[in-house]
Design goal:
alpha/beta, globular, single chain, 41% helix, Mannitol-specific EII, Chain A
Length: 152
């Protein structure tokens, strides 16, 4: 799976404006909505927040991958945000996050959702990639970094 086939450049935001977990998730959902990728913004937001209440998607090392499944999308969609200030996310390592990658997929499609989560997890194991994302000065730079790493 190639993430830049899912991620649209207009669904990347640097820096994120929000400073708390629920607000930053809403900000990412709003990116998807503004891009015309959601048929129901509130349904998508509710799906992600409901999943987040079950268990934090803060995976550690400054990364969170909030995600949800609902009927507000026809295919897997993705947004990325880089926080200007670390955000408390109840991560598994107890540390705040700066890199947020949001996934929303149709309720009846598991395969692409799992593949995207796996691909993101593998990329985030690369410390230099994470550091470059955290230091990105613009949405364009984040998208370019992702494109470059995926073409390696």
């Amino acid at each position: 799976m190639i993430l830049t086939q899912i991620l649209r450049p207009n669904c990347v935001k640097v820096p994120l404006e929000s400073r708390d977990k629920e607000a930053v998730i809403a900000e990412l959902v709003d990116l998807l909505d503004a891009g015309g990728l959601l048929s129901d913004r509130d349904l998508a937001l509710d799906a992600v927040l409901t999943r987040e209440r079950i268990q934090s998607t803060g995976t550690g090392a400054g990364i969170a991958i909030p995600h949800g499944k609902c009927n507000a999308v026809r295919e897997l969609v993705m947004a990325i945000g880089i926080a200007g200030e670390p955000i408390e996310f109840q991560s598994v390592d107890g540390k705040p996050v700066t890199i947020l990658i949001l996934l929303v997929s149709p309720a009846d499609q598991t395969g692409p959702h799992i593949q995207a989560l796996a691909r993101i997890s593998r990329l985030m194991l690369k410390e230099d990639f994470r550091q470059n994302l955290e230091q990105a000065a613009s949405a364009e730079q984040v998208y370019e970094l992702l494109s470059n790493y995926e073409s390696e």
